[in-house]
Amino acid sequence: MKRILVTGGAGFIGSHLCKRLVENGDDVICLDNYYTGSKENVWDLLKYSNFELVRHDVIQPYWAEVDEIYNLACPASPIHYQNDPIQTTKTAVFGIYNLCGLARRTGAKILHASTSEVYGDPAIHPQPEAYWGNVNPIGIRSCYDEGKRCAESLAMDYHRLHGVRIKLIRIFNTYGPKMQAYDGRVITNFVVSALKGEDITIYGDGKQTRSFQYVDDLVEGMIRMMATEDDFTGPVNIGNPGEFTMLELAEKVLRLTGSKSKLVHLPLPADDPKQRRPDISLAKEKLNWEPKVPLDEGLKKVIEYFEARRPNF
């Protein structure tokens, strides 16, 4: 049994990771300040003796004897991180600083969940890990983009200077049950609007593309990355290379929900990337990993999740 700390563990992705680790028999400490996470997401885990839920903000130091740390603490949707951009930057930077200090003291291995947003509005497509990105450092998204870039830098400096065992992954768009209905992400926006029969908003001409991975695929990639040898730090892209335009996604949601919602167009938000698709060659080579869940299959599970919660959204 390993003792594992998961920060942001009551969030969308964190809760799925905690469940997987608890079911594996590990002793899990779930840390969350509930800014975007929810106790409801981990309610079913409280019955397990190897699960512990702690309210804590990673901006402040945390002490525990642990073998592994998964750092997922940071709001990840624009509607949340732009609501308090200073707090977002502090969470990304002070959070990894405090957790690397904990890892250094305990000898724990730490996996830091970075993001495809470090690539900004990419000039290279698809995006390999060697690409340094095209990020606006003073834009409305920079609190998250630059916060995550700085966090990667801090993690690697702790590795080089202090020998901390670092694992870096860059997560591309992820979806699944336990997402918040109004988190501002495109899949939840489309699904909730379709189920309510409201207009589906598409920004710009709808030809901008994204790739979407189901949350179970991401969790598998995270666990495989944590299990790699200490001399491999990454970063590694974890995402689904299947690429869809926003119009294609909207049409899929309409077909799967049977909704009669109409598509309406609004101006494209500032610094919104026009393309986003991972090159996962490194993940295939080092982790023997690639996504398994097709978009239609994953969307059906998300639709079922939100349908079961009507009319509470």
Model description:
By secondary structure, the protein is of the alpha/beta class. It has 9 helices and 13 strands. Helix 1 crosses helix 6. The protein is globular, with a radius of gyration of 19 Å. The mean pLDDT is about 95.
Short overview:
This protein has helices at 12-23, 78-81, 85-106, 142-162, 186-196, 215-226, 246-257, 281-287, 295-307, and strands spanning 3-7, 27-32, 51-55, 68-71, 109-115, 165-171, 174-175, 200-203, 209-211, 213-214, 236-238, 243-245, 263-266. The chain is α/β, with parallel strands linked by helices and 313 residues long. The protein is globular and about 55 Å long.
Helix/strand/pairing category? alpha/beta
Number of helices: 9
Beta-strand content bin: 15-25%
How widely separated are the two ends?
39 Å
Largest sheet, strands/sense/barrel = 7 strands, parallel
**Assembly category:** single chain
Q: Topology, pairings included?
A:
Blueprint: E1 3-7, H1 12-23, E2 27-32, E3 51-55, E4 68-71, H2 78-81, H3 85-106, E5 109-115, H4 142-162, E6 165-171, E7 174-175, H5 186-196, E8 200-203, E9 209-211, E10 213-214, H6 215-226, E11 236-238, E12 243-245, H7 246-257, E13 263-266, H8 281-287, H9 295-307
Helix pairs in contact: 1-6, 3-4, 5-7, 5-9, 7-9
Which descriptors would you attach to this protein?
13 strands; globular; two-stranded parallel sheet; alpha/beta; seven-stranded parallel sheet; 313 residues; 9 helices
